Amino acid sequence: MRKKGLIFVVSAPSGGGKTTICRKVLKKVKGLTPSVSATTRRARPGEKHKKDYHYLPENAFKKAIKDRKFLEWEKNFGYLYGTPKKNILDKIKKGEDVILSIDVKGAMNIKKKFPESILIFIKPPSFKELLRRLKSRNTDDDTEIKKRIKIAKRELRFSPKYDYVVVNKKLESAIARVASIIKKERKRKGG
Predict the structure, then answer these.
(1) Backbone Cα Rg of the chain
(2) In a domain? residue 43
(3) Which member of 38, 57, 77, 83 has the lowest number of beta carbons within 10 Å of its beta carbon?
(4) Longest C-alpha distance within the chain, in Å?
């Protein structure tokens, strides 16, 4: 029986489905705890403080950076995003497994600090489908969508650095695949 919890990191380009997949996997896989990231962006419709993100004013976020309260942090789409350190360290110390839904730069930083972490990249089936998903969210204008597609192309180049790549063609299949990866890695690592 392992004493230390595992860190699972799920990344995808914007619109790739990582948030939805993580939410569904959390319901399917027992004993998995979500990491709630911090951000300076405003909540989208339906998002809740401390459930989806810790929404912070920029000055509070920068103070947390200075006080070394993040495992990693990055600036994306004009906003700051970070992974709070204390909660994750407490959970893995207790032997609990944690799932993080973060971007590729954050994932690379986590892998450096925790080489035993398991990285899962969610890949869209095509750019055409990714564009359709971004437009159907109705959260961004055309300029923002173009920016997200350009960044997505860059992020896809990181996929070979991940332990697993899951193509999100059909949502239910992608959810099942991510859940099976987590179960397999737990078994492999003695849990």
Answers:
(1) 16
(2) yes
(3) 57
(4) 51
Whether residue 191 is predicted with pLDDT greater than 70 in this model: the reply is no
Q: In this predicted structure, what is the pLDDT of residue 117?
A: 97
Mean pLDDT in residue range 100-121: 95
Residue 168 inside a domain? The answer is yes
Q: What angle do CA 139, 142, 147 make, to 5 degrees?
A: 90
In angstroms, the CA 171 to CA 175 distance is: 6
Is 158 inside any structural domain?
A: yes
In which residue are the tokens 């994750």 written? Answer: 88
Contacts of residue 3, defined as CB under 8 A and 6 or more positions apart, other chains included, come to 95
Q: How many domains does the chain have?
A: 1
**In-domain check, residue 2:** no
pLDDT at position 148 over 70: yes
- Helix, strand, coil shares of the chain, percent, nearest 5, are 45, 20, 35
| pLDDT tens-place string over residues 152-182 | 889 999 999 999 999 999 999 999 999 999 9
* Structure letter (DSSP) for residue 49: B
Asked if 134 contacts 148 with a C-beta cutoff of 8 angstroms, the reply is yes
- β-sheet bridge partners, residue 84: 70
Give the CATH number, domain containing residue 167.
Answer: 3.40.50.300
Full residue range of the structural domain in which residue 131 is found: 7-188
